[in-house]
Design goal:
This protein is an all-alpha fold. It has one domain. It contains seven helices and no strands. It is elongated. The relative contact order is 0.16.
């Protein structure tokens, strides 16, 4: 089995979260489900476009290789090595999210502070560990190349979404304007 499909799905889920993170904290409204959904979809779209780069690199490596079967085996081994550190990282993120949604308010806030915050900062470390896993799991330099391109793609989603849609600081409305908007005047 090829690890390309699970890795692509993992990359797309990460892209949606990256879109959300690019938007998060920019809006003080209580009801902002549409805006957060829009941000996640934007991240998903940018991530899907950026993740075409490692797919194209893998396809070019397969087409240019003198022995396509050997190259495919190397890329598959590298993909499995790439997936293992990311699976550990994704499990930690999912546990933090589960704690956030299932625990009482104070404990869920603590789960975000000690879980999701530091894990977001550790994303580049997880990508480097994945690249090393691709290299040392038998993938060699071709798997490292595809993995590095994929890592650069997923780490570029949040800055790209932020720059395209959320780069300007939101200006707070005056209290009078907020009161009129709240009462539909």
């Amino acid at each position: 089995m090829t690890p390309a499909v699970p890795l692509a799905l993992l990359g797309l889920v990460d892209a949606a979260f990256s879109g959300f993170r690019a938007y998060a904290g920019r809006d003080a409204r209580i009801r902002k489900r549409r805006a957060t959904t829009r941000a996640a979809v934007r991240g998903l779209a940018v991530g899907a476009a950026l993740l075409l780069a490692p797919a194209l690199a893998a396809a070019l490596l397969l087409l240019a290789a003198p022995d396509g079967s050997s190259m495919y085996d190397s890329l598959t081994a590298g993909g499995i090595g790439y997936m293992v550190p990311l699976a550990v990282y994704a499990t930690a993120v999912l546990l933090s999210l589960a704690a956030y949604f299932l625990l009482p308010f104070r404990a869920s806030t603590l789960a975000v502070v000690i879980g999701l915050g530091p894990l977001t900062l550790l994303r580049p470390v997880a990508v480097v560990a994945a690249c090393l896993g691709a290299l040392f799991n038998g993938g060699g330099w071709p798997a490292l190349l595809v993995g590095a391109i994929a890592g650069a793609a997923v780490l570029s989603v949040e800055p790209a979404v932020h720059h395209r849609w959320y780069r300007y600081v939101l200006k707070p409305r005056s209290a009078d304007a907020m009161t009129r908007a709240a009462f539909g005047e």
